[in-house]
Structure formats: structure tokens, C-alpha cells
Specification:
There is one protein chain. Helix content is 45%, strand content 14%. The chain is α/β, with parallel strands linked by helices. The protein folds into three domains: 256 residues, 3-Layer(aba) Sandwich (Rossmann fold), CATH 3.40.50.620; 155 residues, Isoleucyl-tRNA Synthetase, Domain 1, CATH 1.10.730; 47 residues, no CATH class. Helix 15 runs antiparallel to helix 16. The radius of gyration is 26 Å and the shape is globular. Bound molecules: adenosine monophosphate (AMP) and zinc ion (ZN). Zinc ion (ZN) binds next to loops.
């Protein structure tokens, strides 16, 4: 097994720690998936791309990884108060369709978008509705252990009782007294004993559509419970890595720790990882505020925010320009710069195949390759890896110009590692992977001829439309002195 030097910033301890998996070769990775009641936005995608990169690097290091990412298809309430409505049930009511039609539509969109971003599928993608029995079993255990109470067919987690034995709030660095001070007083009408208590099971009113029988009557599970039940089922009572966006740290992940400790006495996760937010106009991209950009609008240029479309690989590369724990602001200028960089990188990779070798190397290939590993071993520092890859691009160009030399063995090593880090670890792909396809050449000749005719007729609208449509398909057209070329 690889002697890994991987360090992970653990949100729980607030420190970078050497990664030591529970089982030598095997890594259990759980990432909170989407609540499928709406189209997935680019912010959500950033988090899922970041964890795809984490998954890919663990695989690259030689680990066998079981990557579990759930689908929340029930239980995510708009708020945890008694009147909070399930997000999926609400959408189904508004659109007058079955909740499972909502779930199906947005799950398909989620898969389609992540496939375009070249994300690997997780090893298991369990749904909350598919694990009601496991959730009920976990509630029973928490009740038996004395950390929950039942009221009118609902079950709530008793945060005060829990806090006597385990520190509630340690993941998000909150103190229970401050948390209590920050919540509204219960007015005597509430079922909860304490405003911090959260629902494990909610009693369903007769008109509620998604509901199941339980020992406490007909109802549905609370949101935090599904991740605890499914991660325990597929990864064990304590597993290696749990990830999600920063905004899930509290209360969602804090409650997952509480549920785990309350049912098994052990903390469920060894390394907590949290990705930072994608911002748009300086504010968090979010469904609830409408400050969003949908991936498909970005691919086809169909948003007022953009002048044209961008290839999904350029957008993926853009997300690698910031460390996963830093915020990343979306702008079309940044995307334009990323697109140029992408082409440079891909051109250099092609050049690797044509370089002439020498008896000696004047370039330090081992040093370059180590720099790739050092970057990723330092808490998956993709932007540093990208900077090191661009350093490599410069060196490839110097060798090409005859200003530096490389041996056959060094060239083979460099080619192997650059390809591995660019395609396997960062998960990028050539923009025009069908570039050698003679049929595509024929189609492009025809399309560019039509565009040329439009230009001769001064029909700039049509000419631009063709160029933008091609760009959205990942085909970049350039008009130069010697005519029009495409990549
Ligand atoms: P949701 O479907 O709202 O539960 O979100 C799915 C995932 O996307 C969670 O891990 C969130 O933390 C993450 N997320 C939501 N908004 C953003 C954002 N603006 N930037 C990055 N990740 C986000
Ligand atoms: Zn979760």
C-alpha cells in the first residue's frame, strides 16, 4: 500500500492532520447529496466537483474507496419548527404532481449535470425514502439510550441531556449557552422541551403526502437523521471522511455527530471536510435568494450574466482555481482567463508526444512530479497543483524550442504523471476529444463555410450565433490573417 503523506484539514479539530484510514487500504467517504426539489445550481456543483477531486486523488493514491453520496428525497423541512413543510412535498403540492415526480425530475438533472462535469458516480447513492426502516431503528436506539423524547407522535433529540455527556457544538465551535441565547423562547405551545432540540421523527397530519408507519404513529423522518442512518449502514459506526458544503456544518453535521454519539457512544467521523461557497456578485449562490446560475445556462450562454457559453471542462477547471476551503467568486472574466489557460495546458500535453529526447535531462522532472504530489498531499491544494502544471507547460515549451533537454525515461515519467494529474485527479478532459474524427472535420468545414458566407453578407448576427453555438459545444473558432481555424 502506498505510504501516503496526505494531510487533510479536519474541520473538527481545526488542524491539518496526517490522513490515517481506519482500515489500511480502504477509505469510507460520505458526502451529503442534494435535496432534489430544484435544478442543481453552480454553487452545489462546486461542492460536488471538489469532493469528486478528493475521491479521485484517494483513488490515485491507490486506496479502495467506498464513496457514498445520498439523495435527500424526504425530510428536509423548510425550518425545524412545528409548521415547517417538507421542501419536496411543498413543490409537489404547488405543481400538483406526485412528490416522486419532483424527485425523479431533479435527480435526473443532477446526474446529467455532474456527468457533463466529468464527475465519477459515487459507489452508492442511497435515498432517504429507501432507508426509512434504518432511520426508525436508529431513533429507537437513541430513545432507549435516553437522548430523545416522544411528544404527540413526534420524536425530538434532547440536546440538553446529550450535552451533559457529550459536547454539543464542538464541530462548529459553538457553545450551547450562546446557541440557546440565539434562539427564540418556546412559547409553551411548542412540543420541544428546548429550542435547540431537533426533530428525529415528525408526526404527519392527514393531508401530508409523504408518510410512513412507525412505533410513534404515521409520520416522516427529520432531515439530519438520513445521513446518520445511511452512513452507518454503508460505512460503519465510525468511518473515515465526511464532506459537504460549509453551510451544512451547523446544524446538519453537528446533529449527525450528536445522533452518532447518542446511538453508539462514539463519534461517527474521523475527518470532517467542508467546502467553501461559490459566490456570485459577492454573495453566496443560493436557491432561496435566487442569486443563482444554472450549469446549463452557463454551457449554452443562455444567461443575462454571460455573453456566451463555456465548455463544462472550462467551468470545472475554473473551480480548481481556488482551494476548496476558500470562497470562489464567479465572473465571466475569470472564465475567459481559465479558457485560455485550459487551451495552453491541453496544447502542452499534446506537445509531450512530439518532443525529441536527448542523452541528458537539463530539467528536473522528479522535482516537478514531487511538486504535484506535494500540492495534493497538502489538503488537496488543487490551485497549487495547477500552478505547478503551468510551470511544467513552460518547461515543455523550452524543450520544444531546443533551449532545454530531456531523456526518454524522464519524458515517459513526465507524460505519465502530467496525464494522471490532469485527467485522473483533476478530472479534466480534452475540450475536443473528437478532434481526430474525420466526420467532425467535414461538419466543421461546412459550418465554417456557412459562417464565412454570413460574414461576407455582413450578417454578423448569424456569424456570431454560429461561433457562440460552437463555443458552447466546446469548439473554439479563431479568425486570423490566414483564415478561420477551430479547436
Ligand atoms: P442542498 O441541495 O441545498 O442541500 O445543497 C447541496 C450541497 O451544495 C451542500 O453540500 C451545500 O453545502 C452545497 N452548496 C449550496 N450552496 C453552495 C454554494 N453557493 N457554493 C458551494 N456549495 C454550495
Ligand atoms: Zn447530510
Amino acid at each position: 500500500m502506498t505510504n501516503s503523506k496526505l494531510h487533510i484539514y479536519n474541520s473538527h479539530s481545526g488542524k491539518k492532520e496526517l490522513f490515517v484510514p481506519i482500515h489500511q487500504n480502504f477509505v469510507g467517504l460520505y458526502v451529503c447529496g442534494p435535496t432534489v426539489y430544484n435544478y442543481v445550481h453552480l454553487g452545489n456543483c462546486r461542492t460536488f466537483i471538489s469532493f469528486d477531486m478528493v475521491y479521485r486523488y484517494l483513488l490515485h493514491l491507490g486506496y479502495k474507496v467506498r464513496y457514498v453520496r445520498n439523495i435527500t428525497d424526504v425530510g428536509h423541512l423548510e425550518n425545524d419548527a412545528d409548521e415547517g413543510e417538507d421542501k419536496i412535498a411543498k413543490k409537489a403540492r404547488l405543481e400538483q404532481v406526485e412528490p416522486m415526480e419532483i424527485v425523479q425530475k431533479y435527480t435526473l438533472d443532477f446526474h446529467d449535470v455532474l456527468r457533463q462535469f466529468n464527475n465519477h458516480a459515487p459507489s452508492i447513492e442511497p435515498t432517504a425514502t429507501g432507508h426509512i426502516i434504518e432511520q426508525i431503528e436508529m431513533i429507537k436506539t437513541i430513545l432507549e439510550n435516553g437522548y430523545a423524547y416522544e411528544v404527540n407522535g413526534s420524536v425530538y433529540f434532547d440536546v440538553n441531556k446529550y450535552n451533559e455527556k457529550f459536547p454539543y457544538g464542538e464541530l462548529s465551535g459553538r457553545k450551547i449557552e450562546d446557541l440557546i441565547a440565539g434562539t427564540r423562547d418556546l412559547d409553551g405551545q411548542d412540543e420541544k422541551r428546548n429550542s435547540l432540540d431537533f426533530a428525529l421523527w415528525k408526526n404527519a397530519s392527514p393531508e401530508h403526502i409523504m408518510k410512513w408507519p412507525s412505533p410513534w404513529g404515521i409520520g416522516f423522518p427529520g432531515w439530519h437523521l438520513e445521513c446518520s442512518a445511511m452512513s452507518t449502514k454503508y460505512l460503519g459506526e465510525t468511518f473515515d471522511i465526511h464532506g459537504g458544503g460549509m453551510d451544512l456544518k451547523f446544524p446538519h453535521h453537528e446533529c449527525e455527530i450528536a445522533q452518532g454519539c447518542a446511538s453508539t457512544g462514539k463519534s461517527p467521523v474521523n475527518y470532517w471536510m467542508h467546502g467553501n461557497m461559490l459566490t456570485l456578485n459577492g454573495k453566496k449562490m443560493s436557491k432561496s435568494t435566487g442569486n443563482t446560475l444554472l450549469p446549463n445556462e452557463l454551457f449554452n450562454g443562455g444567461s443575462d450574466l454571460l455573453e456566451r457559453g463555456y465548455h463544462p471542462m472550462v467551468v470545472r477547471f475554473f473551480t480548481m482555481q481556488a482551494h476548496y476551503r476558500s470562497t470562489l467568486d464567479f465572473t465571466s472574466e475569470a472564465l475567459n482567463a481559465t479558457e485560455k489557460g485550459y487551451e495552453k495546458l491541453m496544447d502542452a500535453i499534446k506537445e509531450l508526444e512530439t518532443l525529441t529526447t536527448s542523452a541528458n535531462s537539463s530539467v528536473n522532472v522528479n522535482g516537478l512530479v514531487s511538486s504535484f504530489y506535494d500540492a495534493m498531499n497538502d489538503d488537496f491544494n488543487a490551485p497549487i497543483l495547477v500552478a505547478n502544471l503551468f510551470e511544467t507547460v513552460k518547461i515543455i515549451n523550452t524543450i520544444k524550442e531546443g533551449k532545454a533537454t530531456i531523456t526518454q525515461a524522464d519524458l515517459e515519467l513526465l507524460t505519465k504523471e502530467v496525464n494522471a494529474f490532469v485527467f485522473d485527479v483533476l478530472g479534466l478532459a480534452p475540450l475536443n476529444s473528437a478532434g481526430d474524427d474525420s466526420k467532425l472535420e467535414g461538419v466543421m468545414d461546412l459550418v465554417l463555410n456557412l459562417r464565412q458566407q454570413a460574414r461576407e453578407n455582413k450578417d454578423w448576427g448569424t456569424s456570431d450565433k454560429i461561433r457562440d453555438g460552437l463555443a458552447a459545444a466546446g469548439l473554439v473558432v479563431k479568425d486570423g490573417k490566414d483564415g478561420t481555424t477551430w479547436k
